Amino acid sequence: MNRSEPGWGRVDTEVGESFGRTPIDQSFEVALGSRFRKVWGQLQARSFQSKGTLRVSGSRVTIRTSASRLIGADVDTDLELRCDDIYNVRVNGKLVQFDVVSGPGELAPIIVRARNKGEAALIAAALPTQMTPRYARENHERARFLQQVMTRTPHLWATWAIVAMTSLVFFVMVARGAGFGTVKSASAIAYGSNYGPYTVSGQWWRLLTSVFIHFGFVHFVFNMIVLVQTGRIVERLFGNVRFLVIYLFAGLTGSLMSLLWHPGINSAGASGAIFGVLGSLLAYVLRYSDSIPRSIFLKHFRMAALFIGYNLYWGFTHRGIDNGAHVGGLIGGFMLACVLAPPIDDSDSSRERSAFVFGASGAVACTVLGGLMWALLTLSARPDRQEAMQFSEVLQQLGPVESKAIADVKSLAREPVTGEGRAEYAGRIRTTVIPEWNQLYAAIDKVQVPAGSSDAALKDGLLRYYGDVTKAMQLLADMADSNQLRDYGAKSQIKELMDDAKRQAAMIRRGAAPL
Fold first, then answer.
1. What angle do the packed helices 488-510 and 454-481 form, to 10 degrees?
2. Within its chain, how far is the Cα of 367 from the centroid?
3. What architecture is the 25-132 domain classified under in CATH?
4. Which of 27, 93, 351, 513 is the most exposed place for a label (fewest CB within 10 A)?
5. Integer Cα distance of 479 and 495 in angstroms
6. What's the rounded Cα separation, in Å, for the pair 452 and 264?
7. Which of 505, 503, 498 is nearest to 462 (CA)?
8. Quick check: helix, strand or coil at residue 205?
9. CA 418 → CA 191, 414, 422, 484, distances in Å?
10. Within 13 A of 72's CA, how many CA atoms are on the CB side?
C-alpha cells in the first residue's frame, strides 16, 4: 500500500531524537504484518502469520520471515532495507510501524509485531529517527495537543471517583442480600432505582440515585469498563469538574427521558450517563475539528459515532433495553458539552469568559431539565399513563406472591404421593396452591391497561400463564382424589398446560407478546 509524500525531505525532530542512535548490531524475533487495511483512519495488518527476525546492522535493516502453508511450500520473505530509506518509526503496544522509500516520492508501510512491549520499544530505538516533513508536522501537532490536554487535566480523579461510588453501591447491595448475578427488582427499588410510579409521585431523587444502581454483576461490570475507556478521554478534554457535571446531567436527562418513554418502568444503571459522555466527546471533536490533529479527530469521532450507532441500533431491535435513557443521556451530554467544551488552547481564558460559560451552561441545563420535567408531569396526568403506572405497581406487589406460588408448585413435583396421602395432597393443592394462582389471576384481570399497548400484551400473557397453571393444578387435585395420578391421558393434559405456561413465562421474561 503506497502513498504519496509531497515536499520530500528528511527531518529530525525532538521526538525522533529521543530514540537514540542506531546500535551497531541487534536482532529481534518478530512477526511481519500483511493484508493491510485502514480502521478509524489508522493502518492495521490483518495477518501476522509470517514469523522470523528483524536485524539492525550498521546502515542496514534485514527482515527475514517465513509463513507456513497447509498445501505447498512455505512462503519466505527477505527484505534488505537501507537505514536512509526508513522514515516515521512509531510504536503502538507490541507493534512497530515505519515507512520505507518505494520509489520517487513514494512510501510503503511496514508493520512488525514484537514479542512484548519492551522489545517493541527496543526495535523502535534501534531504527532511524528521521521523519518526512508531513509526518514531523503531524507528530508535532499531536504531541502539542496531548501536552495541552495533559496540562489542563494532569490528574484523572472524577472518572475513578464515579467508578468507586458505583462499585460501593453495588457491593453494599450484594452484601445486604439484593443479589449478585441478578439484583431483585424490589431491592433495586428499595435502594433508589428510577421506578416510574414512585419517582413521579414525588421521589425525584431517584432520577440521580438510579445512575449508581445496577441490576446485576454483568450489567455493572460492562458499564464500568465502558466508562473507564471513554470517561478518561473526556475528562482530559473537559477537565475534572466539567466532566463530572456532564456525567451527572446526562444521568438526569437519561432518567427523565426513560420515564417519558416508559411511564411504569423500573430503570437503573449508568448507561444513560455514559451515552452522555460519548455525546460530549462527539460534541468536542465536532466543535474543535479544525484544531484537533486529524489522526486524533478521526479516531475519537469514529469511535464515538460507531459505539453510539451500534448500541442505539441494538437497543431498538432488541427488547428489554432502556432506549429512553440512552437517547436522553446522549442528547443531554451533547447539548451541555457544546457550551462547556473548553478550547484546545485556553491559556488566554479569563474569569469573565469562565463565568459566561458556566452561566450559559446553567441556563441550558435548567431549560432542558425544566422542559423534560414539564413534559413528564403533563403526560403523567393522562389516563393511559396512569393505567400504565398502576399496572407496574400491581406487578411489583405481586412479585413475592408469584415467587411463593411457583415454589409451592415445584414442591408438589418433588413430593412422593402414597395411597394414604392422596387426600391430604389434593387438599393442599385446593386450599393453598390454587388460591395463590387465583389471586394472581384476579389481581391482573381487574387492572386496566391501554388497549393495544405492550402492557396489554403483557397482561394477556400473564392471564394465560396463570390460567394454565391453575387448570393444571385443578386437574392434578382431581387425579389425586380419583387415584388417577398414573393415568396417561390426564398426565398428558397437565403436561400440555404446563408446557404452554412455560412458553408464556419465557415470552413474558423477554417482553414479547403472547402467541
1. 160
2. 28
3. Roll (2.30)
4. 351
5. 13
6. 16
7. 505
8. coil
9. 47, 13, 6, 12
10. 5
pLDDT in tens, 320-379: 678 889 999 999 999 999 999 888 776 555 565 667 777 888 888 889 999 999 999 999
- DSSP H or E stretch at residue 428: helix 422-428
In 127-270, which residue ranges form alpha helices assigned H by DSSP?
133-152, 158-175, 185-191, 196-200, 206-209, 217-238, 240-261
User: What is the C-alpha separation between 86 and 108, in angstroms, rounded?
Assistant: 10
Are 311 and 322 within 8 A, CB to CB?
Answer: no
Query: Are 136 and 128 spatial neighbours (Cβ–Cβ below 8 Å)?
Result: no
Q: Which helix (H) or strand (E) holds 48?
A: strand 42-57
Q: Where are the alpha helices (DSSP H) in 239-322?
A: 240-261, 271-287, 294-317
Parse the chain into domains and list their residue ranges. Answer: 25-132, 157-381, 384-512
Q: Which of 390, 377, 450 is nearest to 264 (CA)?
A: 390
Amino acid occupying residue 112: V
User: How many residues can be counted in the chain?
Assistant: 515
Phi (first) and psi of residue 54, to 5 degrees: -115, 125
**33 in Cβ contact with 45 (< 8 Å):** yes
Task: Give the pTM.
Answer: 0.77
Q: Could you give the CA distance from residue 461 to residue 512 in angstroms, rounded to a whole number? A: 9
Question: pLDDT by residue (tens digit) across 227-241?
Answer: 998 899 899 999 999
Top CATH class of 157-381 equals: mainly alpha
